[in-house]
Design goal:
This protein has 261 residues and is of the alpha/beta class. The protein is built from eleven helices and nine strands. Helix 2 runs antiparallel to helix 9 and helix 9 packs across helix 11.
């Protein structure tokens, strides 16, 4: 199985270069997801982080996963938050502040600047499918993880709301490039080359969108919907309106994580 080859890497880099687009997507899910626990809180509930552990998060974005979980961060002897984007790291620092045990570091999963056997826990949420050479990236994760350590990686499934939206907008070929490089369907097979014990866990959720304009804004922030971004905004609104029932748009979600040892 070929892994890596991120779709349209230039568009992806632009999508994640600054926090604005990510904030749009996070806010959208917070407002319209039917599972009120929240995906971030659900992820954190699975983390077995004990006192004095050394923890690495790869692709931390705005640090949103740790907001409201300062007690968990405080347990860490050291919490290293990394991202390719310096703007994202600045946003994370603004959100979480300067703390004695938190380190903010610009880093690439394909070439992690850490010694072997450094971390008790490594976290990579919603980013592995963007890694150009995923095999190299996972080899690096394995290298910096201590013996007996745990790797938590979250991703989406291949039966998601974006596929439903692509049908609505009749996106095919170059107009819609779903990134299935690392999903809940193929992730275990990919990870099995690096980890012996892999447990997939699915997050039960869906979308009930009561404000169509939020969905318009969300769509226009996605690199995989380049064709939609070029449509007149009113055309996007009209297509969404055609699928609105009783003032709402209902869409499926498929997300989860792998716990690897």
């Amino acid at each position: 199985m070929k892994i890596g080859s991120s779709n349209d890497s230039a568009a992806v880099k632009a999508q994640y270069a600054v926090p604005k687009g990510l904030d749009i997507r996070l806010t959208f899910h917070e407002k319209h997801s039917t599972n009120r626990q929240g995906y971030g809180a659900w992820l954190v509930s699975h983390y077995d982080i004990r006192d004095r552990m050394t923890v690495l998060e790869i692709g931390c974005g705005t640090g949103n996963i740790w907001r409201g979980h300062e007690d968990l961060a405080a347990k860490c002897r050291k919490l290293v938050l990394t991202d390719l984007s310096k703007s994202m790291l600045e946003a994370a620092k603004n959100n979480l502040g300067e703390r004695g045990n938190i380190v903010y570091r610009n880093a690439d999963i394909q070439d992690l600047p850490f010694p072997d056997d450094t971390f008790d826990v490594v976290i990579a949420n919603s980013m592995l499918y963007h890694v150009p050479d995923l095999e190299k990236g996972l080899r690096e994760v394995r290298r910096v993880l201590k013996k007996g350590g745990v790797f938590y990686c979250a991703t989406y499934g291949e039966h998601n709301f974006t596929d439903r939206l692509a049908e609505w907008f009749k996106l095919v070929g170059a107009g819609f490039r779903p990134n299935h490089n690392f999903t809940m369907q193929n992730g275990k097979e990919i990870l099995s080359s690096f980890f012996e014990d892999i447990t997939p866990v699915f997050y039960e959720d869906s979308l009930h969108v009561t404000k169509a304009e939020d969905l318009v804004e969300y769509l226009r922030s996605l690199a995989s919907f380049k064709t939609v971004m070029n449509l007149p905004v009113q055309k996007i609104r009209d297509i969404i309106k055609a699928h609105t029932v009783d003032g709402a748009i209902d869409l499926p979600k498929e997300y989860g994580m792998f716990i690897c040892r």
